[in-house]
């Protein structure tokens, strides 16, 4: 998305870009999506609004990129053993362990205020604004969900997942309860809960012979 | 919540109350929770704003009651065979069939624009406003979830559900995916999806011997 630029201006551009991302996330967390404006982001980032207009076509585009940047940074900080999905879901051959690792990491991310507050603001707006919601889902959510599909298909090939289960539906049994509890704050979102979801989903609720 | 009133004013009160409910739901669907005001509801319902202030302590209280009223009416229209949870979840002895009935009815409700639009507006606001969210959950959501706990405990007693499964977590495997798909509009919310959730959740995803 960055325009071609001379090498000596590239570091300054990266700094401005990061400042704009941070300003956009802070603002959307404070005043909500609707009241966040390009002008407000520019003022907070200490750049001219023309800088933003030159790089992004819309407020939504700034925010999408800011979220991708933030998620990438969170994953880097958490390190390669964290269940970071940026490199795909690990495949150690133990489906239960791999899914618990990833769901626990997701719990940690959702409980991190730096991610939580802007994510809530954007999700809430997507719930009432179908167009923004669709963009949010296709750019931010579906790439994550695709990683589950890949891991679940591998499990099917290894005989660890029922051959007749649709991975695209199966992943919703893992992600849906987590997001539901987080969004509606019904009960605390913990590692124990992540583990229970994986155990219940894989093992099923009816008694096994 | 209704004050003591003379019998001859009671029918008029009921009409006003219903008009206020309808106005509140319509308004919150159109302009969102924050921009809905007591004055706006009064104007739309054709009553004085003092009437609303006399009956309800807050905008949130009007809306909570309006949702309960709307859900009650929807359940009445759908009839007793609809999987209406107002009378509890049916217990025919067939857990799979009973859960499919209820989840299909929930799909129908969520796809009904009269319920969908105001429910989205209130849910979105609860996601960013923790206090409103908590009120929404305790008054509207938890009473519904309690019906699942009751049905799932009965299934445990009948030996149809694993004895070591926590019904409060188990129900989230049913409700979470449904709400996730509806809120984020990832894929169509259909009866087939409701059935798949029940089958996957009860049977589990790992191969059975």
UniProtKB/TrEMBL annotation, chains A, B:
Keywords: DNA-binding, Transcription, Transcription regulation
Keyword DNA-binding attributed: yes
One Pfam family here: TetR_N
UniProt name for this protein: TetR/AcrR family transcriptional regulator
DNA-binding region: 37-56
HTH tetR-type domain segment(s): 14-74
């Amino acid at each position: 998305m960055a325009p071609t630029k001379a090498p000596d201006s590239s570091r300054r551009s990266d700094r401005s870009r990061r400042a704009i991302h941070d300003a956009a996330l802070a603002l959307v967390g404070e005043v909500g999506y609707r009241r966040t404006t390009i002008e407000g982001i520019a003022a907070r980032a200490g750049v001219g609004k023309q800088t933003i207009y030159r790089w992004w076509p819309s407020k939504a585009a700034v925010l999408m990129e800011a979220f991708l940047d933030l998620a990438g940074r969170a994953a880097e900080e958490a390190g390669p053993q964290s269940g970071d999905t940026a490199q795909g879901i690990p495949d150690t051959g133990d489906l239960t362990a791999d899914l618990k690792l990833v769901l626990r990491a997701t719990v940690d991310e959702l409980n991190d205020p730096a991610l939580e507050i802007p994510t809530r603001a954007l999700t809430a707006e997507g719930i009432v604004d179908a167009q923004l919601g669709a963009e949010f889902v296709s750019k931010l959510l579906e790439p994550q969900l695709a990683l589950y599909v890949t891991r679940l298909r591998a499990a099917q090939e290894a005989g660890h997942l029922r051959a007749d289960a649709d991975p695209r539906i199966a992943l919703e049994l893992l992600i849906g309860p987590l997001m539901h509890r987080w969004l509606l704050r019904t009960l605390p979102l913990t590692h124990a809960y992540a583990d229970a979801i994986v155990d219940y989903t894989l093992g099923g609720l009816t008694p096994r012979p």
